[in-house]
Write a structure and sequence with these properties.
Layout lengths: L4 H28 L3 H37 L6 H29 L5 H35 L10
Helix pairs in contact: 1-2, 1-4, 2-3, 3-4
Protein name: DUF2798 domain-containing protein
InterPro entries: DUF2798
Keywords: Membrane, Transmembrane, Transmembrane helix
Length: about 160
Amino acid sequence: MPINKKEKLVYTFLMVIFMAGAMTTYNVLLAEGFSAQSIQHAWLIFPVMFTIAFIIEWFIVAPIAFRAVGKLVKATDSEAKKGLTTALCFVLGMASLMSLVGTIIFGGFTANIPLLWFKAFCVNFPVAFILQVAIARPLIGSLFRSLFPIGTIVEVK
């Protein structure tokens, strides 16, 4: 895990690339079915979804999630509990907000937004949580530390 603000920025960038790419592809495949054209469509909209996801995570979800984690776990809790709680807080925030963004972008402003958002959240949350815990955190954590061993990204004071 990152240990300073610069490391958090790099880690967040890598994590959002992975999660936004995977979840964008997942949602497009759900909506359009599996085809070369749907994969192409997912990757064409990825830059927009990545940008929105990064802004939402960095400025909204991360501050709230870290505050919640601080209240939910103790220093003496197991690393597994800390990791699962952190993943849960981040995925709840990101799945909620990105499902809303996707609902508005692809469904427009209609009276059905609350229902469509809730449906999107229910479809996205389980996949995002499992993806985060089982694949993204181990993969991105390992990639991050192999690219940037502890102490290589230094805070400038």
